[in-house]
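Researcher: Next entry in the queue.
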Amino acid sequence: MAKTKFDVKTEAAKVFYAGVGVNDLAVELVRDYVADVQTKVADVQKNVTSIDLDPKALRTYIEARVAALQSEAKGYPAKVQSVLTENVDTAADAFEDLVKRGETLVARIRRQESTKATVSSAKNTAAKAKTTTTQASKTADASKTAAKKAVKSTPVKKKAAAAKSSAKATATTAKKTAESAVKATGDAAAKVGD
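Model: Structure for this entry, 194 residues:
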């Protein structure tokens, strides 16, 4: 009997994608039920116009309708459970379905322009931060050398100015990255539950 190789990275990715798939499915179900409730509320509003406006008749109607809606609401958890149970033949199939759903959603999010822009901006920010670190280190080294010589050094001032400029550019790029990330997050949230 041949042994199957267990790849931790692949299995961990499957668990991640299954988690994304579960969240996506939950959002979809909640949206469906909210739409169902909104339809029922609209029906109730239509029925209210046809109700006798006598206070006793109105009270009786409202109490009956509230009781009916409460019983329906109490049944929603069971409905959700039965929908999930009906749609899943086995736990392994459900897991694989959720993995595929999660992979699809993550792939859609990775393909969106705002995500690509955020990744590019983050790489640019990291490069600028590295440059800033290098320039600050060089400035510090030049300052030590100048201090040891007890000489006022023009190159130290230039290096300090370059480090300051680089730090400012890094901060600006980081801000743009954060703004891009906010947009990408909003775009990704819109894809959940579709």
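Model: The helical segments are 8-49, 55-87, 91-111, 113-149, 154-191.
Researcher: Noted, moving on.
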